[in-house]
Description:
It comes from Diversispora eburnea. The protein is of the alpha/beta class.
Amino acid sequence: MAKFKLTEKDKEIRDKTNIRGKIKEVTHFSNDNKNYAIVINKVYNLYAIRLINYDYEDSDEVKVKAIKRFPDLMNFYKTKEEVFEKAKEIPVNPKLINKCVYEFETHEDDVENNILLIGRTGSGKSTLANVISGSNDFKESEGSVSKTKNFQNEVFEHEGIKYRVIDTIGVGDTNLSHEKVIFKLAEAIYTMKRGIKQIFIVLGGRFTEEERELFVMAKKIFGREIIEHTTIVRNRFESFENSEKCDKDRKELSKENKEISNLINSCGGIVYVNNPPLSESEKRRKIDEEDRESSRKKLFEHLKSRSNETYRMENWDDMCVGINDYMNAKNLKESGENTNNPKIFAEARTKMEINNIKQEIIDEIKNQSLKSEDVEAHCFTKVNTFAFNVDFTFKLKNICSIQ
Length: 403
Ligand SMILES: Nc1nc2c(ncn2[C@@H]2O[C@H](COP(=O)(O)OP(=O)(O)OP(=O)(O)O)[C@@H](O)[C@H]2O)c(=O)[nH]1
Ligand SMILES: [Mg+2]
């Protein structure tokens, strides 16, 4: 079979839709006076199809009007035969053509209310994720051993509204380098395709250097405006239903230092909860469950009161599209669902490609964080800002070598 060669128009469509990996075929057809391209790409020995509706601008440039990924936003076709067969079916199936409606393919993910949990190791993130989602799917640690090594997220509904809660690895774990934590946070962007509703900083006790650093990192990664979408969740607070005691603690926390006080005053505030481990004894367990349920109620009341728009930084959509295929292919392989047993060289190439995309995302984040640094320079002393920038840039450069 002759090797497929991209035309200039195909390249323009590929670049404008941000499709990565090896392009195996592009075909064009018209339907109902609209132009369509079908693009097949290959990542990690897996295949995906994009159906793209495009038009021409006055300058004869291609203008992408809508896109749809097949089989869906996350999955792949496992064989060449399967993908080519499906690609042939699309132009003659109006039902499939009518699915081509998204401005970015990632907009197919309709969860706008993404809640990202960050915090120190052992602070109670996974427990909070269970409480928020009303599930038991997140692994809560029993001892001091850190449990969560990777991202886990869950979509659920509460009072008819869809939410996603994202549990992350904690900061302060000696087994995980700082760089890896920064990258994991950057990677969270891909999980929250429609943006961030709230970041919950999980606070198990007093405010320490780790929490301060986490917040600075979040600001560097997501931009300074993220503060308006950040809430401190103070757990392990048995008197969480006593507003006087909560107020007293709030005041004490604010007094600790000026930086914490600024954070508390400019963010979405502090929500007090108690999410105890579920006891073996039936009687005690009932009380634990009641505490968790009341905590959940408080958290959703707070979320409702934060009616501000979902937050996304510049180029958020492009970043999500850029990494979508690679992360999905990687996850699929890691979860053992890919029965294709990819060849070693394909694995090496995918790792290289993932690293290249990591580099792009990091460059993008770096550019944006430096831009926002100009605006907020007055927030830090000059010496601190300089030291942090050098340090941060250095760390980001190192991240690219992480597999
Ligand atoms: N009493 C009480 N215990 C809690 C609360 N939140 C968490 N815990 C306990 O604290 C321990 C750590 O909780 P996790 O949810 O696993 O903490 P994590 O932040 O996910 O930890 P890593 O994944 O290791 O970073 C567990 O034993 C929980 O049962 C709380 O609000 N009250
Ligand atoms: Mg955890």
